[in-house]
Specification:
heterodimer; A: alpha+beta; nine-stranded mixed β-sheet; 26 helices; 24 strands; B: alpha+beta; about 45% strand; globular
């Protein structure tokens, strides 16, 4: 059976073979609607590829590491990246390549091609999940075409698709992806048309932008919008946006450009063209037997239809469904560049000013009611920054992912997370802080009299001055703890512990990173090289901020904790009435979160006459290496303070108030999963074995257990001496 | 199968759906493995199996009562590595006699009616494995231990 069928030759029975998007194009082409010429690559090609190369089993391996229900979105993203890299690195079998080259020979010249996903069941179901799979524009030449077919196949397992795996019925055994290969129409005005306005069924909606449709679909370019009377096509209203940019074909792919001034003042299409587009959607409705939502483009004055699908209601989502938010984290390069500017130039300086402003207020002089007000104000400020953290800082982390894809597409490394080595060579505050700590420790290491003095609790003035400088720059390591005492009681014993072991080295060397950067950039030339450098720069900024923003928000939180601590202290001393304070509704939850005690840890469960314990737990490999050691469960900075060199740090979630002990650790195990969490980032910097995404790590492993951390395979082995 | 069940539920389901297990015994330093037909008690504390007394495994069991048993649900597909489940049972086996043997025989035949001739033979011994520990392996490398509490 052929694996490629021309649009005009597809029969109704072949709908599942060519997928929803492909089938709609074929039907339109058959009925004489203006559709750019193209070919469908059937799901049979996908199935042959994953079966003959053994990829099917590898996908299964990636998807079965742990229960989906136990996976955070970050882990799902990492899984999708691993699978994508498998597709990138697995060539098509020779027979399939031969067959596709033969069937697609029509596209072998240098014309611009679109390679688009067409999943079976897509666009026909009652619920629409558009945009889960990838499409690629402006591809040139047979080799690039075959590469991009593999990338479209890989997107069957994209993070977004995995999030909606239940609704899609994703199944390694049965799921498959068809691909549409189509000539690109270099449209200069494009848009979408909704046969029925979801808000008013007597109306239709037309949206249009200058340039290609990608600007509109990705949300980068605000469209002109017309509301029409559905039956007559009469224009009821037109809303014009600020027209300032448009998307055009680049040498490869597309890029956003400023709109020429002469176009800013006029709508992309004339009223008569709005009506032409509307007539087309009604023709589509007649063919498909229901209202359609169509994408279209004008090449000069010729109208082409790019896609048609039934209008569906958006999937029912409850308010606690986090998936739409996760999907919103996917941002374009342009969007992330803007976001970075705002965070670096505006938000972080503001946050630090807030922290500094609070730090100089003298809590001890406040009356009871003043102190309560002060706590509420600090809680409000902290809550405000938590919101900004979620809405702006977390999305910026997508810059790391975006760079990861660019890097993997170009270099195709065996380790899909190799790109992180390139990002690490950047100014991270937590590493600077650890270097400063190491400098203090090395002074102690070489000076026996200083060590003895500190051991006795006597602090020479010169050393005390250096501690003050450290605290001024990085804050007291324990300032976020309740009952924060003078640094001498906690910081000095920690420096002594650090001095007791050999100097700590960061893994990276400048020249190694520089070599890798050159290897990466050597895959690009001309303008593409400049774009790759910009992607790297953005990736590095995202990576750096991912750690630094936590340090900074930690400083705001510390000020809240300090004020709460002051209140608690006075109550204990009987200065204030020991009645509970009724916090204002808007801050009660923040205060509760900050003061909540950790739940008791239970290592074993007993039920039905059996006691259960984990012997080996599978997580995600997050830092290569193998190490065995005694466990210290670290839930907060107080636990971190008790940490001894050579112990294995097991925690729920590493946060910046703990990362100063990482250089002492033999290995790190974290419940929270993902390659971009602090535990992974810091562990990679020091070359420490790290496994993340270990379900219930802090309850299934206990302080004092001996464990082996296999950072290559992502396994934690809990040792017992009974057999 | 049973992905939503707790470990004990998964073991129960596995033991119920499978009927064959690999029994490991020992002759001095030499380990020895056999396929056997088994039936597990509903509280999962005991596992019944049978063997003729002239076999090597019977001889081994008479010398060393500590055994291991492996039950799994593989289907000889490459995907088994990541999808199948296996449980290792550790414990002590002893031959049943008299009333105990009679009752056990009935239970055993309830599960393996096609083995009536084998089980009724005077040369066949019925044995009971008293379970001390289950070790459940899921998703290739996820390992949980369940110990019988006294």
């Amino acid at each position: 059976m052929s694996v490629a069928i021309e649009f005009k030759d597809v029969s109704d029975e072949q709908r599942e073979l060519v997928g929803g998007k492909g089938f709609a194009l074929c039907v339109m082409a058959r009925d004489g609607l203006p559709v750019p010429a193209g070919i469908c690559i059937t799901t049979e090609a996908y199935l042959r590829y994953v079966a003959d190369t053994g990829l099917r089993v590898n996908i299964l391996r990636e998807l079965n590491r742990k229960r989906f229900e136990d996976m955070r979105w970050e882990e799902i993203w990492d899984t999708a990246l691993r699978i994508r890299n498998l597709f990138l690195r697995t060539p098509m079998p020779e027979r399939l390549t031969f067959s596709l080259k033969h069937d697609l020979s029509w596209f072998a010249d240098d014309r611009a091609i679109a390679v688009r996903s067409s999943a079976p069941g897509e666009d026909s179901s009652k619920t629409s999940f558009a945009g889960l799979h990838d499409s690629y524009l402006n591809i040139h030449g047979m080799d690039a075409l075959l590469d991009h077919i593999r990338l479209v196949w890989a997107s069957l397992w994209s993070d977004a698709a995995l999030l909606y795996r239940r609704e899609l019925g994703l199944d390694v055994e049965r799921s498959a992806m068809a691909v549409v290969v189509q000539e690109i129409v270099p449209g200069n005005r494009s848009g979408v048309v909704f046969g029925v306005n979801p808000n008013d069924h007597a109306q239709s909606v037309v949206e249009a932008v200058y340039g290609l449709n990608e600007g509109l679909v990705s949300g980068q370019v605000e469209p002109d919008r017309w509301i029409l009377e559905r039956a007559s096509g009469r224009i009821l209203s037109h809303r014009a946006p600020l027209r300032d940019r448009f998307v055009v074909l680049a040498t490869e792919g597309v890029r956003t450009e400023p709109l020429p001034p002469d176009k800013m003042q006029s709508a992309p299409i004339a009223d008569s063209e709005v009506k032409d587009v509307h007539r087309m959607v009604l023709r589509g409705e007649a063919i498909f037997g229901g209202p359609q939502d169509m994408e279209w483009t004008y090449d000069g004055d010729r109208l082409f239809l790019l896609q048609s699908r039934p209008i569906t209601t958006v999937g029912e989502t409850s308010t606690d469904d986090q998936r739409p938010w996760y999907r919103s984290l996917h941002r374009t390069f342009e969007n992330l560049k803007d976001l970075r500017g705002r965070i670096e130039e505006e938000l972080i300086p503001k946050m630090l000013r807030d922290a500094d402003r609070l730090a100089v207020r003298h809590l001890a002089s406040l009356q009871e009611t003043e102190l309560v007000c002060e706590i509420e104000e600090r809680a409000r400020i902290y809550k405000k920054w938590q919101g900004i953290y979620r809405d702006d800082f977390i999305p910026l982390a997508h810059g790391i992912r975006l760079f990861g894809m660019v890097y993997n597409d170009a270099v195709r490394p065996s380790d899909p997370f190799e790109f992180m080595d390139l990002l690490g060579a950047t100014a991270m505050v937590s590493l600077e802080r650890n270097r400063a700590l190491e400098a203090l420790a090395s002074s102690v290491r070489i000076d026996a009299s200083l060590r003895d003095a500190l051991g006795r609790g006597a602090i020479p003035e010169s050393f005390s001055n250096r501690l003050e400088v450290f605290i001024k720059r990085f804050g007291d390591l324990f300032e976020s703890l309740p009952d924060a005492t003078r640094y001498g009681e906690r910081l000095i014993p920690f420096v002594l512990e650090l001095a007791g072991r050999k100097p700590i080295e960061e893994r990276k060397t400048g020249s190694g990173v520089e070599d890798r950067r050159e290897v990466f950039l050597s895959h690009f030339t001309g303008k593409k090289r400049q774009e790759a450098e910009e992607q790297l720069d953005l990736g590095r900024a995202s990576y750096r901020l991912r750690d630094n923003d936590n340090m900074y928000i930690g400083r705001v939180k510390a000020q809240l904790v300090k004020a709460l601590d002051e209140l608690g202290r006075r109550k204990e001393q009987g200065v204030f009435a020991p009645r509970p304070v009724a916090w204002s509704g808007d801050v009660a939850s923040v205060i509760e979160e900050v003061t909540r005690a950790h739940p008791p840890l239970t290592a074993n469960a007993e039920a039905d006459g059996f006691s259960t314990r984990a012997r080996q737990i599978v997580g995600q490999p997050a830092g290569p290496g193998l190490a065995t050691g005694s466990v210290r469960i670290v839930m907060d900075a107080a636990d971190a303070f008790r940490f001894k060199a050579g112990e294995v740090m097991v925690c729920d979630a590493v946060d910046p108030t703990m990362t100063f002990v990482v250089p002492l650790a033999a290995a790190i195990v974290e419940r929270r999963g993902g390659m971009l969490i602090h535990g992974s980032i810091i562990a990679r910097e020091y070359g420490i074995p790290c496994v993340t995404g270990v379900p219930d790590a802090t309850s299934r492993i206990r302080t004092g257990d001996t464990i082996t951390v296999d950072g290559y395979l992502g396994i934690v082995i809990i040792e017992r001496d009974d057999e | 199968m049973g992905e939503d069940l707790d470990p004990l539920g998964q073991i129960r389901e596995l033991l119920l759906l499978q009927s064959l297990a690999v029994l490991s015994t020992r002759n001095n330093e030499q380990p020895y493995g056999n396929l056997i037909c088994y039936v597990a008690s509903s509280d999962l504390r005991h596992i019944l199996f049978a063997t003729t007394r002239s076999t090597r495994k019977y001889a081994n069991l008479m010398r060393e009562a500590r055994v291991a048993l492996l039950v799994d649900n593989r289907s000889q597909d490459p995907a088994d590595t990541f999808r199948s489940m296996a449980v290792t049972v550790l414990g002590v086996a002893r031959e049943l006699e008299g009333n105990e043997a009679e009752q056990a025989r009935e239970t055993y035949l309830g599960r393996h009616p096609h083995l009536e001739e084998f089980i009724s033979s005077p040369s066949t011994a019925l044995l009971r494995l008293d379970v001390e520990k289950y070790i459940l392996v899921r998703r290739f490398q996820d390992v949980i231990e369940l110990q019988v509490t006294p």
